Amino acid sequence: MKKILAIESSCDETACAIIDEDLNILSSVVTSQIDVHARFGGVIPEVASRMHVEQISTIIDEALKQADEKVEDITAIAYTIGPGLIGSLHVGGIAAKTLAFFYDKPLIGVHHLKGHIFINELLAPLEYPLMALVVSGGHTELVYLEDDDHFRIIGTTLDDAVGESYDKVARVIGLEYPGGPKIDRLSKEGKMTYKLPTPKVEGLNFSFSGLKNATLQLIKKIENSGEELNKVDLSYSFQETALRSLITKTKKALEEYPCKMLVLAGGVAANSRLRELVESEIKDIKVILPPLKYCTDNATMIGVAAFHYLKHDKFVPLNAESRPNMSIED
Ligand code: KG4
Ligand code: ZN
């Protein structure tokens, strides 16, 4: 039975997982730095890399211990090669390379977003052509997969990522980083009290900075007028407008690029309203929503994706450089 030890350290989670070729998760350990970054209102890259350095060995040891495995018996070492914060990526990369060198194992450099997409295989085999709506703190992309080795970005944000605008709006109304889950929760009780502009971009691309700025201006205007801001309704109005744009573009993409399956991927895929809308509005094809636990960053997803790299004999040398801006098409 082939087994992969996978490491993820692209942003503010340090994680290690061991999974086998049947996608059994032998262990999956994640430590989040969220509490520390929350104090600053967002991820501070230098703090993130330092914390990865402090955590990484313990996390790898813990993953091996929980799986009751030895590195000698692992088939390959996988890690996130990009995209992400350069200092954070380096820490996971160096740990993975050290293990690969010392134990003479093949090394696999996984694209972070491929991890978010392939984690859906825990629920069902993926069917191609496949559309992935990738929504995270750093990316908003519609990715067309002809098969498990060919990725085409058919739509992308021209400015902010959707998760980034959630976090920004949340911060301004006094919610702690990461704000996405908090806006999700507040919105459940809200209604469309505030009218916000629907993002308007041609084709399959997205834009969230206009909506974000309009929301921030509205908040300022209400505060200056001495009126009380209804945070619940503001969250609702912002969220509905942002998600409506995701749904409209996804439907358009599926018309232009007929697919057998749609998957959601990335941190914002945990959003309860997005999950509801996708299920109710995408009718004609199979839809997979990633398990909530694996929506935000983890190493299991890197391990699952790594089995595809292994299948296609895609390895990286020990001197491979981390790629903070790597595209999913590379
Ligand atoms: O994929 P991820 O863990 O990290 C990146 O690769 O960026 O995504 C983190 C992003 C953050 O912006 C966070 O606010 C957002 O995902 N997020 C959510 C929810 N849970 C996480 N946004 C909206 N609703 C949620 N429930
Ligand atoms: Zn991510």
Describe the structure.
This protein is α/β, with parallel strands linked by helices and 330 residues long. The protein is 42% helix and 19% strand. It has ten helices and ten strands. Strands 3-2-1-4-5 form a five-stranded mixed β-sheet, sandwiched between helices. The chain has a five-stranded mixed β-sheet with strand order 8-7-6-9-10, sandwiched between helices. The radius of gyration is 20 Å and the shape is globular. Bound molecules: 5'-O-[(R)-(carboxyoxy)(hydroxy)phosphoryl]adenosine and zinc ion. 5'-O-[(R)-(carboxyoxy)(hydroxy)phosphoryl]adenosine (KG4) binds next to helix 5 and helix 6.
**How many DSSP-defined strands?**
10
Order of helical and strand elements: EEEHHEHEHEEEHHHHEHEH
Kindly provide the radius of gyration, computed on alpha-carbon positions and rounded to a whole number of angstroms: 20 Å
Arrangement of strands in the largest sheet: 3-2-1-4-5
Number of domains: 2
What structural category arises from helix and sheet content?
alpha/beta
Distance between the termini: 29 Å
Average pLDDT confidence is 96
CATH architecture of the largest domain: 2-Layer Sandwich
Largest sheet: 5 strands, mixed
The proportion of residues in beta strands is: 15-25%
